[in-house]
């Protein structure tokens, strides 16, 4: 599983960097994205609703936002 550390980046950079990473992945691969942008939960859920990629898990820990995404 790939880990993408996007802490300290503000919108739209976490989405853009995640989109670039997903384009390089194979179907079925998983990526964990870590952000600190408080709006990232809304941004990622909106972004993923427009793709076929799947949000497997979302959680918040120590003011960091974690997204486990599966490439379709």
How many β-strand runs?
Answer: 4
Strand order of the largest sheet: 1-2-4-3
Instruction: Fill in the CATH topology.
Output: Translation Initiation Factor IF3
Let me know the average pLDDT.
Answer: 96
First and last CA, distance: 14 Å
**Cα shape:** globular
CATH hierarchy, class: Alpha Beta
Rounded Rg: 11 Å
- Name the helix and strand elements from N-terminus to C-terminus, one letter apiece: EHEHEE
Proportion of beta-strand residues: 25-35%
How does CATH name the architecture?
2-Layer Sandwich
Task: Lay out the secondary structure.
Blueprint: E1 2-5, H1 13-23, E2 30-35, H2 40-49, E3 54-61, E4 64-70
Parallel strand pairs: 1-2
Antiparallel strand pairs: 2-4, 3-4
Domain UPF0033: 2-71
InterPro entries: TusA-like (IPR001455), TusA-like_sf (IPR036868)
Protein name: Sulfurtransferase TusA family protein
Any overview of this molecule?
By secondary structure, this protein is α+β, with helices and mostly antiparallel strands. It has a single domain (2-70), classed as TusA-like domain (Translation Initiation Factor IF3, 2-Layer Sandwich), CATH 3.30.110.40. It has helices at residues 13-23, 40-49, and strands at residues 2-5, 30-35, 54-61, 64-70. A hairpin with a 2-residue loop joins strand 3 (54-61) and strand 4. The longest helix is centred in the first third of the chain and has 11 residues, at 13-23. It is globular. The mean pLDDT is 96.
């Amino acid at each position: 599983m790939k880990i993408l550390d996007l802490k300290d980046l503000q919108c739209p950079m976490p989405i853009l960097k995640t989109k670039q990473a997903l384009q390089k992945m194979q179907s079925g691969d998983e990526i964990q994205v870590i952000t600190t942008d408080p709006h990232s939960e809304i941004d990622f859920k909106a972004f993923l609703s427009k793709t076929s990629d799947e949000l497997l898990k979302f959680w918040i820990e120590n003011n960091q936002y974690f997204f486990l995404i599966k490439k379709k």
